[in-house]
Amino acid sequence: xxxxxxxxxxxxxxxxxxxxxxxxxxxxxxxxxxxxxxxxxxxxxxxxxxxxxxxxxxxxxxxxxxxxxxxxxxxxxxxxxxxxxxxxxxxxxxxxxxxxxxxxxxxxxxxxxxxxxxxxxxxxxxxxxxxxxxxxxxxxxxxxxxxxxxxxxxxxxxxxxxxxxxxxxxxxxxxxxxxxxxxxxxxxxxxxxxxxxxxxxxxxxxxxxxxxxxxxxxxxxxxxxxxxxxxxxxxxxxxxxxxxxxxxxxxxxxxxxxxxxxxxxx
Length: 266
Known about the structure:
Structural class: alpha/beta
Radius of gyration: 17 Å
Order of helices and strands: EEEHEHEHEHHHHEHEHH
Largest sheet: 8 strands, mixed
Number of strands: 8
CATH topology: Rossmann fold
Strand content: 15-25%
CATH class: Alpha Beta
Number of helices: 10
Strand order of the largest sheet: 1-2-4-3-5-6-7-8
Helix content: 40-55%
CATH superfamily: Alpha/Beta hydrolase fold, catalytic domain
Distance between the termini: 33 Å
Number of domains: 1
């Protein structure tokens, strides 16, 4: 693993690279997941890809503070990072908020963004049911991390996680700018990603957590009605944080997505 910074879209962007011999893969983590929290996931992914994990602005070691944290700007960040890295339409894997960012980036710049692996994106939005996690869960845990907390204290928020995962979250969650998180959380309810789906020409896989209320059967049906080319993979024994709950199932789904995406090219 190598960490580095670059200038893209007018700010300092920090990435972690897990070098592999396969095609490039850009990973966009979720709402409160700094890049380092993907260490245990990106390492096995590097068996198939040359992996770049982005610290989304306002998180980890990327620039934060008084910035625009809207969905359109986060998508523009990804596009500009891809261009700065000199990559040609890399595959993009986004989890939760990161999947919504990947969808918007693909619509904004199909010339820059390749195939998509969308991991349990929130399907809330205007006129839709709210995102199932309450705002207090995010704010309270971030406030706790800002004060300084132990892995044991963080267990109250992530009871199913391993000790090492809890320790990482306790160490790094304080780097998540509360304003950045609030903007993204509010955006789950105000940004309409469904309108983007029919316009995406890249191949897509949708990974759904079987044990989470984020994406339900009716949501899958609606998504497929908007873009019938999407391949759906349901990961059993996993909540919304799929690789944290079932890493083997997550990797198996990625491998299956790989096959589908390659087949789509033939």
